[in-house]
């Protein structure tokens, strides 16, 4: 049972309706996580604005974004978001196997692996990244712009995952059975 009211898009008015309309534009619909965030349309609008800005001209591929999002979801112990990013990651060209590996900070190719190691260190060490990690991710082909965009992706999903933990919306995506919050969480 959710800890906060889930506002149905058909019942939304004013700023909440505006936020839901933007969620539909960006994501194709209003998932249950957005329905609870609609209780504070300014927060949902802020999330959506940050998402739009970070993704405007982003150097990361859709698959790389989703691999990072999957890892961040696992580290932040957000089963809801693991479920979402499994689906979206596959829509962005990642296989189920690749998305499960990303959840554990692993990738099949060296470029993606370097990105996940960087993202893992950013999350686990609260932005304190070693020179070795920076050197490795740059050698894998990531520019400083892409590294900052990765931090943006981490921030976007950390924000909404904290909302998920507090509000506890109903799940609306198939559960990823392989996810274990105690084992994979930071």
Write up what this structure looks like.
- By secondary structure, the chain is mainly α.
- Helix content is 66%, strand content 0%.
- The chain has a domain at 62-157: AhpD-like.
- It has helices at residues 14-27, 32-37, 41-55, 62-75, 79-91, 96-103, 110-124, 131-139, 144-167, 181-184.
- The radius of gyration is 16 Å and the shape is globular.
Distance between the termini: 25 Å
The stretches of 5 or more residues where confidence is low (pLDDT under 50) are none
Radius of gyration: 16 Å
> Could you describe the largest sheet, including whether it forms a barrel?
none
The 3D shape can be described as globular
Oligomeric category: single chain
What's the mean pLDDT score? 94
The CATH superfamily name of the domain at 62-157 is AhpD-like
CATH fold category name of the domain at 62-157: AhpD-like
Given helix and strand content, the structural type is mainly alpha
**CATH class call of the domain at 62-157:** Mainly Alpha
**What series of H and E elements makes up the topology?**
HHHHHHHHHH
The strand count comes to 0
CATH architecture of the domain at 62-157: Up-down Bundle
Percentage beta strand: under 5%
Task: Give the % helix.
Answer: 55-70%
Number of helices: 10
């Amino acid at each position: 049972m959710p800890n906060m009211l889930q506002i149905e898009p058909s019942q939304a008015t004013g700023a909440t309706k505006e936020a839901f309309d933007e969620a539909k534009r960006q994501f194709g619909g209003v998932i249950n996580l957005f329905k609870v965030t609609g209780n504070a349309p300014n927060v949902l609008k802020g999330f959506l604005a940050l998402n739009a800005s970070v993704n405007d001209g982003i150097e990361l591929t859709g698959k790389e974004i989703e691999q990072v999002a999957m890892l961040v979801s696992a580290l932040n112990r957000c089963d809801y978001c693991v479920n979402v990013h499994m689906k979206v990651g596959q829509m962005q060209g990642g296989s189920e196997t690749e998305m499960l590996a990303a959840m554990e900070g692993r990738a099949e190719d060296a470029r993606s692996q370097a990105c996940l190691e960087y993202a893992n260190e950013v999350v686990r060490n609260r932005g304190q990244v070693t020179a070795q990690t920076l050197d490795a991710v740059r050698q894998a082909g990531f520019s400083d712009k892409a590294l900052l965009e990765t931090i943006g992706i981490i921030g976007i999903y950390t924000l909404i995952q904290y909302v998920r933990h507090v509000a506890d919306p109903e799940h609306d995506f198939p559960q990823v059975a392989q996810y274990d919050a105690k084992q994979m969480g930071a």
